[in-house]
Design goal:
The complex is a heterodimer.
Chain A lengths: L2 H30 L7 H19 L2 H25 L4 H24 L21 H6 L4 H9 L4 H19 L1 H11 L1 H6 L4 H27 L11 H11 L4 H21 L3 E2 L3 E2 L2 H16 L21
Antiparallel strand pairs in A: 1-2
Helix pairs in contact in A: 1-6, 1-7, 1-10, 1-11, 1-12, 2-3, 2-4, 2-10, 2-11, 3-4, 3-10, 7-8, 8-10, 11-12, 11-13, 12-13
Chain B lengths: L4 H20 L4 H13 L2 H26 L7 H19 L5 H30 L3 H24 L21 H7 L12 H18 L1 H11 L1 H6 L4 H17 L1 H10 L10 H11 L4 H24 L6 H16 L5 H11 L4 H7 L1
Helix pairs in contact in B: 1-15, 2-3, 2-14, 3-8, 3-11, 3-13, 3-14, 4-5, 4-6, 4-11, 4-12, 4-13, 5-6, 5-11, 5-12, 8-9, 8-14, 9-11, 13-14, 13-15, 14-15
Classes of the chains: A mainly alpha, B mainly alpha.
Chain lengths: ~325, ~375
């Protein structure tokens, strides 16, 4: 494999991993506070639709992002209202959001744009373009490392880099601030948080608000960077894969980042290995590589490679009287 | 009031919100509703299609319900149904050329149940013996099932030269007769539809689940563990076994979807014959209050929505069948996740109306 191929493999790994990273961070924020989020897939899909629809109608990037943010926050507040305030089943809510999103985006898309559920292609002014356009040609001249840097690391748009910054930000928030300590405590031992005079409900609402905001970026990325428009069911299981990555990363932002990069790499690799025969093992079926993230997560959950321990109060609504 | 009123109100809210969406996209809800009912029940063919869809939902709905009574949430109906289809197809492809229908068909049903059961047994065992959560593992197993099915179809079962990803057509002895065939034997004329004898299997499965859960010892144990795991343990019931039993049954029921779709209709193994039926089962089980009678009724409701929705998409240009999936999601939202949101308000209303409705209230219990 030469450096150009290596560079493009690195590039597609990062491209595929970005929505996973954003989505997994959203998951980490919610689940660390004790609220299961199985609705990531649906939240991401509806946010992507909002981005695509508003972007196509107004031709404005800020408005498209703002609408994604509004939809993400609205869904998270619904999540909080049903599951935190009213102690509804968190798993059922996630399933409900995902099912509703899958249907609603198609219904609205067909009714509003009459293109079989797609939105019109976004103008280039709305889409995200590579951030370091100037740097690439200059670097390509360098031997070996040049193409790797230019193709693999510097050819991306702002959201890709932002996702890495966000991982750090989430880590810092969760592990270096008072708010983060309380948020994690709400996920481990809410009664103690309550006894300390801090509202578990408020903490979980805040965690979910952050979850909605970060998740809206994941949805927006799909439309602004990956695809030129919204396409029905375009999340294609990414929300669940992000969930798997979050678990694989043991509910830690940095762990989740590595898991997302691994899953992104596997995805990028599976496309390149299609039809290729490897020296020792022969042809690797694409489906095996595609299923690998899920298999690995199951194996990890089963405790065969390390131990993934969920936040202790995950999934249990907090009842004050206890 | 908790048994009937609250679920009815929740269902009504879901329907109202769906009606709002219909208005929003520019159609008249009453026109949509009329056409939907006419499409689902207005003709012999419509009724047959409704029941055909309902058959699949009975299987997945029961699957969710059985696991639910064991205190487990099986989101893996989708994958288990795929595996059920695979089992059905493998029996049909290997045996149907040599054996008569009387032997092949029962084997196909058994294989569907067995494959579904095995696919549910792995997450169940991991939950029971390794402590990993069944919700997550069953989701993962959906994706793994989908990858496995795709691999087998593309690399092993696909006919050479065929461009579509599907197996070869089964021999005739692997065809589960349609209801129109069965009625023709009795001398009744009935339009040709996908409705097949699996519908009887669905009825049998409902009765069996009812008998097992409420009138047998193993069923009692499963429910005891689901209702109060600590108390069950104290009473000498081993929770791990009940987890295995509940999930195995659940998987077997979901696997039966393969019989309805693969043996009854398609006559060959396809890639996406499940199309969300596993998730629909969650909605069905929620509205049906996880009871076989409720599930059968809810399945007919959903069957009617699917069939009526297909008819609607045909009749009104620009109307998407996905409206049905939206409604399905809204039902899970309002009847499932937000089921208790209105309970305090209804309770207050109930108390406020009590003096006036004392005689009526007594009749309701």
């Amino acid at each position: 494999m030469d450096e150009i191929a290596l560079g493009s493999l690195l590039a597609s790994t990062l491209r595929v991993a970005t929505p996973l990273i954003l989505c997994a961070m959203a998951g980490v924020l919610a689940e660390r506070s004790g609220v299961i989020d199985l609705g990531l897939e649906g939240k991401m899909l509806l946010c992507a639709f909002a981005t695509g629809a508003v972007g196509a109608l107004t031709g404005s990037l800020p408005l498209a992002l703002a609408s994604a943010l509004a939809v993400g926050l609205a869904l998270s507040m619904l999540h909080a209202y049903a599951c935190v305030s009213h102690r509804g089943d968190q798993v059922v809510l996630g399933v409900a959001i995902t099912m509703t999103a899958a249907g609603l985006t198609v219904v609205l898309g067909i009714a509003w744009f009459k293109m079989g559920g797609q939105t019109p292609a976004l103008p280039d002014s709305v889409r995200l373009s590579p951030l370091f356009n100037g740097a690439a040609p200059a670097l390509s001249a360098l031997p070996f490392i040049g193409p790797l840097l230019a193709l693999g690391l510097l050819g991306h748009n702002a959201l890709v880099y932002l996702s890495f910054v966000l991982v750090f930000a989430v880590w810092w928030l969760l592990f270096r601030t008072r708010f983060g300590l309380r948020l994690r405590a709400a996920g481990e031992n809410p009664a103690m948080v309550d006894a300390a005079g801090v509202s578990v409900l408020t903490l979980r609402y805040q965690a979910l608000a952050l979850n909605g905001a970060v998740c809206s970026l994941a949805g927006a990325y799909l439309v602004l960077a990956q695809n030129p428009s919204f396409v029905p069911h375009m999340t294609a299981g990414r929300g669940y894969m992000a969930l798997a990555a979050m678990i694989f990363g043991k509910w830690h932002p940095v762990g989740a980042l590595w898991a997302c990069l691994l899953f992104g790499f596997l995805d990028a690799l599976s496309i390149r290995l299609q039809g290729l025969s490897l020296p020792v093992i022969g042809a690797v079926p694409v489906q095996a590589i595609q299923a690998l993230p899920y298999v690995l997560t199951v194996v990890l959950l089963a405790g065969f490679i390390g131990r993934a321990r969920a936040p202790k109060a995950l999934g249990t609504p907090y009842v004050k009287e206890r | 009031m908790d048994v009937a009123l609250l679920p009815a109100v929740n269902l009504a809210i879901a329907l109202l919100v769906a009606g709002g969406v219909v208005l929003l996209v520019g159609f008249k809800p009453e026109q949509v509703l009329t056409l939907l009912i006419k499409g689902a029940f207005g003709s012999q063919a419509g009724i047959s299609y409704t029941l055909y869809y309902a058959t699949t939902f009975v299987f997945t709905g029961l699957a969710v319900a059985v696991a639910f009574h064991g205190g487990l949430f099986n989101i893996g109906g989708e994958g288990q149904a795929m595996m059920g289809g695979l089992g059905t197809a493998l029996v049909a492809l290997s045996l149907a050329d040599h054996l008569p229908a009387a032997v092949v068909l029962p084997l196909m049903v058994l294989a569907a149940m067995l494959f579904g059961m095995l696919w549910a047994a792995v997450p169940a065992a991991l939950q029971a013996y390794r402590g990993s959560h069944v919700v997550i593992t069953t989701i993962m197993f959906n994706f793994i099932a989908s990858a496995l099915l795709s691999y087998l179809l593309v690399n092993v079962l696909k006919e050479p030269g065929n461009m579509t990803v599907e197996s070869r057509r089964f021999a005739d002895s692997a065809r589960l007769p349609g209801v129109h065939d069965a009625l023709a034997w009795l001398g009744v004329e009935w339009p040709r539809t996908p409705l097949n004898l699996s519908v009887l299997l669905a009825v049998a499965a409902s009765v069996a689940v009812w008998a097992l859960l409420w009138h047998s010892r193993p069923g009692y144990r499963v429910r005891a563990v689901g209702f109060a795991p600590e108390a069950a343990l104290y009473a000498g019931i081993r929770p791990k076994r009940q987890v295995m039993l509940a999930m195995a049954l659940s998987g077997a029921l979901a696997g039966l979807v393969g019989v309805n779709e693969i043996a009854g209709v398609h006559q060959r193994l396809l890639l996406d014959f499940v199309v969300g039926a596993g998730f629909a089962g969650i909605a069905v089980s929620l509205i049906g209050r996880s009871h076989p009678v409720g599930i059968v009724l809810a399945s007919v409701l959903f069957g009617a929505l699917y069939q009526g929705g297909a008819e609607l998409a045909f009749e009104i240009p620009g109307f998407s069948r996905d409206m049905v999936f939206t409604l399905q999601g809204l039902i899970v939202l309002f009847s499932g996740a937000m089921a208790q949101v209105l309970a305090p308000a209804l309770q207050r209303l109930h108390h406020a109306l009590r003096p006036a409705a004392a005689t009526q209230g007594a009749a309701h219990g």
